[in-house]
Write a structure and sequence with these properties.
- The complex is a heterodimer of chains A (629) and B (197).
- Chain A has 629 residues and is an all-alpha fold.
- Chain A is 63% helix and 0% strand.
- Chain A has one domain (29-551, 570-619): Up-down Bundle (Cytochrome C Oxidase, Chain A).
- Chain A has helices at residues 24-28, 33-62, 72-107, 115-133, 162-190, 203-234, 248-282, 289-303, 318-346, 355-377, 380-386, 390-420, 426-452, 469-499, 537-542, 544-547, 566-569, 581-594, 600-619.
- The radius of gyration of chain A is 25 Å and the shape is globular.
- Chain B is mostly helical and 197 residues long.
- Chain B has a single domain (2-196), classed as Four Helix Bundle (Hemerythrin (Met), subunit A) (Up-down Bundle), CATH 1.20.120.
- Helix content of chain B is 73%, strand content 0%.
- The longest helix of chain B has 31 residues, at 88-118.
- The radius of gyration of chain B is 19 Å and the shape is elongated.
- The chains are: A mainly alpha (629), B mainly alpha (197).
- The A-B interface holds A 113-114, 178, 181-183, 185-186, 189-192, 196, 216-221, 223-225, 227-228, 231, 235-239, 244-247, 250, 254, 257, 569, 615, 618-619 and B 10-13, 15, 17, 20-21, 24-25, 27-29, 31-32, 34-36, 39, 42-43, 46-48, 123-124, 126-127, 129-131, 134, 152, 162.
């Protein structure tokens, strides 16, 4: 039994992990998934704050009629960058932080399949984020909306540099996401600990896996769309130029073939987090594990067949509209299955209302509201009334803020002690939660009414006497409550990092593998690779009288389990070597793209850097000498 | 795999990590070319000015260059067979052949582009020109990257210990990519060229 999970007998036990390397160079060359996860987390929260400030500026402008706080041009830049930032630079990287931090730990691995590719994904994300924001200081920020509809983006209608930054930045960010998706896909499929069969994977890992497949199948459509737009703008092609036979509507198809799966790319990781948190704090196993997993797969498959519901008003005709209305309504089924699973998990549980749990319950409640207004939009006649009004803005904020952001914050509170070794303060956390929940509803619920009485989205100002004044003012006040709630979070982070309680290894008495190691985990994650015997490895070990039957051999089919002699595998621990090539390659790629704006000389230098760094990457040894743990 | 003594790390599925990631990449690239081919097809017949496809396509010429690319898949298989048997000399001959055939294909494409350009078809002349050059150009770029990859392997085989039987997976990965690019050309050749004939 030497290779059994080293479970925690005592949830207050604290083990000091060995200190890793330190200094700036060690961060620039790191290939450790936990450090890269921290980089993702810090980057994502920074851009979440930037996107939030952009939102507050928008709300100040709209707080009263005929306001002149910002100009129309600035307003366009602000709403474009608010959407782009929140989607590509806040929610996706925040999910990416959890993929990085948790995937190897939850499946019982020492790192991801390709540690250097992982570092590469992060650096490309960072440089892409800087490139897409560069217009704020030079040449003007993107201003054609986050979905950049043709032919508003054609050289004739967007002569400035804003769209240039957007179209190049979005391609760079796509490279980051797709590279990371290959990595996590391979890691989850290939690097599971002995006994960790697919149907024993934590639900978060299942949702991560599905998200990766969505990313690498959906992003190519956006890449192609952005490439065509780039050719239209730099090389005078005619893809979206009506006079030459081009089709602006083609952009909408390409964009939404990507854009709707993207919605699930944003929400599925949060759904995975919530599934883990609800299980732990309800003190009972997730209700209907198999149903949740297959509902996730169903959502992903259907997600590729619903993109036209973003285009009901473009005049495609009754037949396409009807088909896509039906497929859109069908998505409500797997989503509903999940919601009942979460409620079933809490039902009869011994609920522990920690901050993480509150955020997860908030997620379920807010997501139901957003889901219901989503089903309304599945009907083309109803959608025709809502299209381009604040009703739609209310809907997608309920799923993306009330959904994704709530779920991701739940994950932040839940896993924070695992990776920092410090517990966040529960009192401050609860203030954060309640302020955010109240502020969120005060902000976004009135938008349903504003939309229903006809207020269009993306207007920088509106006239007197339309009956929009009151609810716009309420909405603006709500948005500042959200802003204040975030200040409580930031304060919580800094105060507890300095003064907070030292976190035990397993503060929540949780069931999954990441809690079997130290807080923060050692560089090599596990001293011995655990052998997994159930879906809740720690609970079956800690409470054999309650969950012992879960670990009956062969329940989920493990023909290969008895054959694996784990002792052989981890006599020696091979850790990946630090490498600067991922950073150099990322610099090369961003120079290649940025050269389109500045000078093509830059592009050629970028290409040369890419060529050199790929050679350097291929020739350097990926793993070091054995490190005896 | 054990029979070939190829170094592969034990994985949950038995398939090497690099190969698993490569298949994921190819799935993604399928969506990329699928989108580009769709763009070409929906743009078809919308060009307002000539030259039009039927006027400039030289089907016999492109058939020859397509045949050359197809044959390069054969030589790729022979190169992989060589290294899997530990015969570096045979590997070098066939990997060089593959790269040369790839270059012949690229030369044919450059010739074709030049001819079309003289006939008045440019990126900006019509929607047909835009869609044709971008689709076939991206395929050509894939072939070009493949040629560099093959030449890199050839070069690496002169350094001891890099391209050996135990590491034949490195060659197999290039082969997967090369065959995929070949298959894409079969689709492009059919839907772009042959349907016009």
């Amino acid at each position: 039994m030497a290779t059994q999970v080293r479970y925690v007998e005592d949830s207050t036990r604290i083990q000091e992990p060995e200190a890793g390397p330190s200094g700036l160079w060690s961060w620039l060359t790191t290939v450790d998934h936990k450090r890269i996860g921290v980089l993702y987390l810090v980057t994502a929260l920074t851009f979440f704050a930037i996107g939030g400030i952009e939102a507050l500026l928008l709300r100040v402008q709209l707080s009263q009629p005929n306001n002149a706080f910002v100009s129309a041009a600035t307003y366009n830049q602000l709403f474009t960058m608010h959407g782009t930032t929140m989607i590509f630079l806040a929610v996706m990287p925040l999910s990416g932080a959890f993929f990085n931090l948790l995937t190897p730990l939850m499946i019982g691995a020492r790192d991801v399949a390709f540690p250097r590719l992982n570092a590469f994904s992060y650096w490309v994300l960072l440089f892409g984020a800087i490139l897409i924001n560069f217009g704020w200081i030079y040449g003007g920020a993107p201003d054609a909306g986050w979905f950049a509809y043709a032919n508003l983006t054609s050289p004739a209608y967007s002569p400035g540099m804003g769209v240039d930054y957007w179209v190049l930045g979005i391609q760079v960010l796509g490279i980051s996401s797709v590279a990371a998706s290959f990595n996590f896909f391979t890691t989850i499929v290939n690097m599971r600990a002995p006994g960790m069969s697919m149907m024993r994977l934590p639900v978060f890992i299942w949702m991560t896996l599905i998200t990766q497949i969505l990313i690498f199948m959906a992003f190519p459509a956006l890449t192609v769309g952005a490439t065509l737009l780039m050719f239209d703008r730099w090389f005078d092609t005619n893809f979206f130029i009506v006079e030459a036979g081009g089709m602006p509507l083609l952009w909408q198809h390409l964009f939404w073939v990507f854009g709707h799966p993207e919605v699930y790319i944003l929400i599925l990781p949060a759904m995975g987090i919530v599934s883990e948190v609800l299980q732990t704090f309800s003190r009972k196993p997730l209700f209907g594990y198999t149903a949740i997993v297959f509902a996730g797969i169903g959502i992903a498959v259907l997600g590729f067949s619903v993109w036209v519901h973003h285009m009901f008003t473009t005049g495609l005709g009754p037949v396409p509209n009807s088909i896509f209305a039906i497929s859109t309504m069908l998505i409500a089924l797997p989503t509903g299955v999940k919601i009942f699973n979460w409620i079933g998990t809490m039902w009869g549980g011994a609920l522990w209302l920690s901050t993480a749990m509150l955020f997860s319950i908030g997620f379920v409640a807010m997501f139901i509201i957003g889901g219901l207004s989503g089903v309304m939009h599945a009907s083309p006649p109803v959608d025709s009334q809502h299209q381009d009004t604040y009703f739609v803005v209310a809907h997608f904020h309920y799923v993306l803020f009330g959904g994704s952001i709530m779920g991701l914050f739940s994950g932040v509170y839940y896993w924070w002690p695992k990776f920092t070794g410090k517990l966040l303060h529960e009192g401050l956390g609860k203030v954060h939660f309640w302020l955010m929940l109240i502020g969120f509803n005060v902000t976004f619920f009135p938008m349903h009414w504003l939309g229903a009485i006809g207020m269009p989205r993306r207007i920088y100002s509106y006239g007197d006497g339309l009956n929009w004044e009151f609810w716009n003012m309420v909405t603006t006040m709500g948005s500042f409550i959200i802003g204040i709630s975030f200040i409580f979070f930031i304060a919580n982070v800094f105060i507890t990092l300095v003064l907070g309680d030292r976190a035990p290894d397993d503060p929540w008495d949780a069931p999954t593998l990441e809690w079997a190691t130290t807080s923060p985990p050692a560089l090599h994650n596990f001293d011995t690779i655990p052998v997994v015997k159930s879906r809740m490895p720690l609970w079956t070990d800690k409470y054999p009288e309650v969950y012992g039957h879960e670990s009956e051999p062969g329940e989920h089919g493990d023909p290969d389990l008895p054959d694996i002699q784990t002792d052989e595998v981890h006599d020696e621990i091979h850790l990946p070597n630090p490498s600067y090539w991922p950073l150099v390659l990322a610099i090369g790629i961003v120079m290649l793209f940025a050269g389109f704006i500045f000078t093509f000389v830059m592009s050629f230098i970028g290409l040369a850097l890419m060529f050199i760094s790929i050679w350097g990457w291929a020739l350097e040894p990926a793993f070091g000498e054995a490190d005896h743990a | 795999m054990a029979a070939n003594h190829v170094i592969e790390h034990p994985t949950s599925t038995g398939l090497d990590n690099r190969k698993m990631a490569m298949w994921a990449f190819l799935a993604s690239d399928c969506m990329f070319f699928g989108s580009l081919i769709t763009v070409y097809l929906v743009s078809h017949g919308r060009a307002m000015v000539g030259p039009f496809p039927q006027e400039i396509f030289d089907i016999p010429f492109t058939s020859v260059s397509a045949f050359v690319l197809l044959m390069s898949s054969l030589s790729m298989v022979l190169a992989l067979g060589g290294i899997q048997r530990g015969n570096v000399q045979r590997f070098r001959i066939w990997i060089a052949t593959t790269a040369v055939l790839g270059c012949v294909f690229l030369g044919g494409q450059i010739y074709e582009f030049t001819e079309f350009h003289h006939a008045g078809l440019t990126l900006e002349s019509s929607i047909f020109g835009s869609a044709f050059y971008v689709l076939t150009g991206f395929h050509g770029t894939h072939v070009f990257i493949g040629v560099i990859w093959l030449l890199s392997l050839l070069l690496a085989s002169f350094k001891p210990g890099l391209v050996i039987r135990e590491k034949s997976l490195n060659v197999e990965m290039a082969g997967l990519y090369w065959h995929f690019v070949d298959i894409v050309w079969i689709v492009i050749f059919t839907v772009v060229y042959l349907v016009e004939a």
